[in-house]
Design brief:
Residues 97-298 form the ABC transmembrane type-1 domain. The chain crosses the membrane at residues 12-30, 103-125, 132-154, 174-193, 233-255, 275-301. The protein is mainly alpha-helical. It is 76% helix and 0% strand. It has 2 domains: 2-74, no CATH class; 91-301, MetI-like fold. The protein has helices at residues 2-29, 34-39, 47-57, 63-74, 89-124, 129-142, 146-160, 172-202, 205-212, 217-229, 231-245, 249-254, 260-270, 273-301. It is globular and about 85 Å long. The mean pLDDT is 80.
């Protein structure tokens, strides 16, 4: 197990290097002038100001040199200096990462509870009116774009009913609408996935044998059916949670939630490359770490899986 974890962490380093390398190349070929966004259009015409700013941020070096310099700083925990605010990127992103994490935790909790709950009920009462209604509504919700869900929730519950604030805040009531916006589509996916996998497991021979031996229904459900059907659900939840922690750009922009998604949108508009690269580096690291955690959960849920 220890060697497996060490090997996966080594792979994480390779993935981070590859992702940041591609991002550096993309930022290099994109149109625009970062120096102009730093100094302003008037000062950017002054050659002395341009040369000073390029030297300060290392923009006077070649792209490979800039990349090597960035990687060496990241290895020590330094994500560079923000172009606009002239502050450390890690200092700026710290509070935003915390805000995104709070929103992601609430959203994934809603997905886990309601998605798996609805899927379990639909599987246990398959082909009933409840099952057909669940299938219909989950299919419909999967097709709704996130921005449409967010705008509808804001219009109904924030503007008309005034149950929640229109813009997100630090309190729980300010988190509910953006969290529900993020969770609705995933709830539909998890419900359908849970229902499908549970129906397969319920038809398995070892479940029929357990029932024939007279084991209590609850024990059969939780020990045999739910545990074995949860592996693909855990995979999806891990991917979904990683995407949420990486920042929900559309939802954070709609509700003006001060997270990494909104920071990324603003940084792209301002050509603030250190923020863009910092957010992407963080997002890739989260995905790789969560994929490792999901693999470890596999072994815990199914003893037949061996990590070597």
């Amino acid at each position: 197990m220890g060697r497996y974890v060490a090997r996966r962490l080594g792979q994480m380093v390779i993935v981070l290097i590859g992702a940041t390398m591609v991002l550096f190349a993309c930022l290099f070929v994109l149109p625009g002038d970062p120096v102009g966004s730093i100094a302003g259009s008037d000062k950017a015409r002054d050659p002395a100001v341009v040369a000073e700013l390029k030297a300060r941020y290392g923009l006077d070096k070649s792209l490979p040199e800039q990349y090597v310099n960035y990687v060496s700083k990241v290895a020590t925990g330094d994500l560079g200096e923000d172009f606009i605010q002239r502050r450390e990127v890690s200092e700026i992103l710290g509070p935003k990462l915390a805000n995104t994490a709070k929103l992601a935790l609430l959203a994934i909790a809603l997905v886990t509870v309601f998605g798996m709950g609805v899927g379990i009920i639909a599987a246990l009462y398959r082909y009933s009116i409840l099952d057909m209604a669940t299938t219909f509504f989950t299919t419909m919700m999967v097709g709704f774009p996130t921005f449409v869900i967010g705008m509808l929730l804001m219009k109904w519950f924030a503007v008309e009913l005034q149950w929640f604030p229109q813009l997100g805040g630090d309190k729980l009531e300010g988190m509910i609408l953006p969290a529900v916006t993020l969770a609705i589509t995933d709830i539909a996916f998890v419900a359908r996935l849970t229902r499908g996998t549970m129906l397969e497991v319920l038809r398995a021979d070892y479940v029929k044998t357990a029932v024939a031996k007279g084991l209590p229904r609850r024990r059969v459900l939780f020990k045999h059916v739910l545990r074995n059907s949860s592996i693909p659900v855990v995979t999806y939840l891990g991917i979904s949670f990683g995407a949420l922690l990486g920042g929900a750009l559309i939802t954070e922009a709609i509700f003006n939630w001060d997270g990494v998604g909104l920071a990324l949108v603003q940084a792209i508009q301002q050509q603030n490359n250190p923020i863009v690269i910092g957010v992407v580096t963080y997002s890739v690291a989260i995905f790789v770490v969560l994929s490792l955690i999901v693999d470890l959960l596999y072994a815990a849920l199914d003893p037949r899986i061996r990590l070597s």
